[in-house]
Amino acid sequence: MFDTHVNLHAEAFEDDLEEVLTRAREAGIRRFLAICDRFDSYQKVRAIADANSDIWNTVGVHPHHAKDFPDLKVDDLLHAARDPRTVAIGETGLDFHYGYSAEAEQVANFRRHIEAARRSGLPLVVHTREADDLTARILEEEYQNGPFGILLHCYTGGQELADRGLALGAYFSVSGILSFKNARDVRAVISTIPLNRVILETDCPYLAPVPYRGRRNEPAYLPHVADALARLHGKTREDITSICEDNALTLFNKVGI
């Protein structure tokens, strides 16, 4: 299994990261994608990947932190993208739920990341919350300037954004949210997305799936995300993990096999 979104540099893992990774490997996780959420965290994220042959990383600035990196340049992202362990750009995108960064700052940050994805050939990891229409419009506008790979990660958006994303060839990742009792709307949208466009993630240490909801999330819990997707499609865990791993390796095609 491939956990395509782990925040291993988070404070929650400072004391026991090695034990966390051991449990994950024992649970069948064979690849991890460590996410960079701030440009000044890149070296820490990259060091985790460098120390583990089954971990790769991204480079990017989460929309919450867009205000902190107004001078970030596309070339800064491209320089990191040349590293063999850096396999995606992001996470980036738009998040208007908390408003930690102004809309204009988020949009400018998002467009810089898109340009870096286009020029590097690496897929773009997109975070979007309460910004469906603007996210879709920016992706569509930018795609006209040249194609780039798109992952709408931890997807909880609406049907319209899903449909517009699919028209651009986007992939969608599902997290433990899919197992939450009150996530009926999320399940309804995910059920319409072709399985050849879906991958798995934990987004740990956040969003632990049932039966661990409310605890610190770990990559070892990824099989429970697979189970939620399997129930949705009437398939076995084995079917789902095989399909989603193939999809993830197609999307993140710089990841070694």
Automatic annotation (TrEMBL):
Q: Which Pfam families match?
A: TatD_DNase
Q: Name one GO cellular component term.
A: cytosol
Residues recorded as binding a divalent metal cation 2, renumbered to this chain, are H127, H153
Residue numbers binding a divalent metal cation 1:
H5, E91, D203
Which keywords belong to this entry? Hydrolase, Metal-binding
Q: Which family does it belong to?
A: Belongs to the metallo-dependent hydrolases superfamily. TatD-type hydrolase family.
Q: What is this protein called?
A: TatD family deoxyribonuclease
